[in-house]
Amino acid sequence: MDQFTLNLIVVGLSFALYFGIAIWARAGSTSEFYAAGQGVPPVMNGMATGADWMSAASFISMAGIIAFGGYESSAYLMGWTGGYVLLALLLAPYLRKFGKFTVPEFVGDRFYSGGARLMAVVCLIIISVTYVIGQMTGVGVTFARFLEVSTSTGLYIGAAVVFAYAVLGGMKGITYTQVAQYVVLIIAYTIPALFISLSLTGNFLPQLGLIGGYAPSGGDVAFLEKLDAVVTELGFKAYTADSSNYFNMFLFTMSLMIGTAGLPHVIIRFFTVPKVADARSSAGWALVFIALLYTVAPAVGSMARLNLTTTMWPAAVTGSAFDGPAITRADIDAKPELSWIRTWEKTGLLKMVDKNGDGQIQYVNEPADLAANTKALDAAAAELAKAADADKAAIEAKIAELTTAREGVIATATVGSTGKTFAEMGLNGNELVTVNNDIMVLANPEIAALPGWVVALVAAGALAAALSTAAGLLLAISSAISHDLIKGTINPNISEKGELLAARISMAFAIVLATYLGLNPPGFAAQTVALAFGLAAATIFPVLMMGIFSSRINKEGAIMGMIVGLLFTSIYIFIFKGWFFIPGTNNLPDTPDQYFFGISPLSIGTIGAVLNFVTAFVVSSITKAPPKEVVELVESIRVPKGAGAAQAH
């Protein structure tokens, strides 16, 4: 059976399972649509939370970022995992005890203000839409490869699938679907990792393989030592190298941590359990289920990097990369085991160019000045293709000037640890010009020549990860619009049937918007998701913390804190990523040398959170204290007993 047919069968069976569960567990009331009737057992809720949490960013993109980012990228693991500890200890039990369906509803009641509730709705929608862009990006990448269609077509197919089961099932259907999706994604992630770890290190467990020996050379050399030797020889930074900016790394890790604790679609999962104690238990189980994937991710990323590099330089398997020739275009076009390269090239996420015309594809790191020259030449070539005849002479002269400058750089720039220049080695720059981070996990089984059923299983797992989180986010958006905006502000007398219809319509509109933005995402899946965490860190997390643990914060302080946090963080992000993520509208290049004090857009959420806290405390100190009944309410939330069911709405 060919790979395409196998992919269709495995992915089709998984989708049939999801649709069947959604129909079986479809929501019949607003309580079931928003909170699954608050009858989900803690273990099952922990599993569903794990699926909701381990999105396309975790499954598809995180290992890719670790593969090319090395030690610095461990911030994703530390931040996302640490955030669950904060959520379990500081937020989940108290929010469940409050007995509401949504985060904005808690904010509105705690700060006795419709304006505060409305501001929370705005923040929630912005966070969730940004987050769901990353999921739709992952869906598009996965469908593009395994259904052999364009990324745009893959995105449209994924949107249709999410629409079908999320709109129908609500929280009840999504919860039980996510339990099944967790099982699919964790099997799909770990099985290839076991095979690859065994072949590269001799260790069955990837966690041990990461710190074990490199099997192809007899195990005498540590696996990470071998990886460092190979990538530094090619001019890349050592995989285990320290961070060059600890301040930014700290801010980024903190942003992910407190952003995790402030994510609306994760928080609402703890409204679905019967009791307050179950909320804390659910968080503990979620950490267990998440750890099953997160402890494997560093091994997957590092092994994928080494497998890719040794594929491009076959001699690197047992010696140095330059002991033999690089992979040739003829090999790629002829050998079945390299068919994955041809397939990924069709998607545009992998691109190779034989710049020196020798038939080989040399994968090396270009120094900064050579990389800048390459970028300028590519831009000039694109400009020439679109220019009118009258303008072509000037552009051609510019290209000639850049080409001459390139020859000078090639004559002086050295290749990695070889000590030889590009010219001496007959190279004209890096010829593996594009390797999208988001393809590494998906391509890993094929690079390692694993069986076809493993490749198909990874496809199903990637789609399970992306679709489960997308569904949770879309539910958070729809509940904010229908329950908090329409019922809470615009039409309090709306019937339950009308509210349910409004929720489903708003979810449909959210899917359309997320699909449109997913066509031009502001980064890799994990990077886009990190932006959403920054926004959550700067807006939702502070207002929830102050709402639970400070009886002095009033509605004026809460509203102004959210406004300052949201505006500061989003404007900083838009300056580098483009206004509202529209390509080409950024004010400054998205490069480290342009960041203020070296703080990247992915890390700015921590500063936004500090500004939120400071603003709220200052404004509250100079305005009227909260009413007595609100102060008593805050005190009662922290009492560990006496939590009842959610209030009727």
TrEMBL record:
Membrane-topology descriptor: Multi-pass membrane protein
Alphabetically ordered keywords of this record: Cell membrane, Ion transport, Membrane, Sodium, Sodium transport, Symport, Transmembrane, Transmembrane helix, Transport
Matches recorded under InterPro entries: Na/Glc_symporter_sf, Na/solute_symporter, Na/solute_symporter_CS, Na/solute_symporter_VC_2705, Sodium:Solute_Symporter
Membrane-spanning residues: 6-25, 53-71, 77-95, 116-133, 153-170, 182-200, 249-271, 283-304, 501-519, 525-545, 557-575, 595-619
Pfam short name (any one): SSF
Record Gene3D superfamilies: Sodium/glucose cotransporter (1.20.1730.10)
UniProt similarity note: Belongs to the sodium:solute symporter (SSF) (TC 2.A.21) family.
Name by which UniProt lists this protein: Cation acetate symporter
Lineage, highest ranks first: Bacteria, Pseudomonadati, Pseudomonadota, Alphaproteobacteria, Rhodobacterales
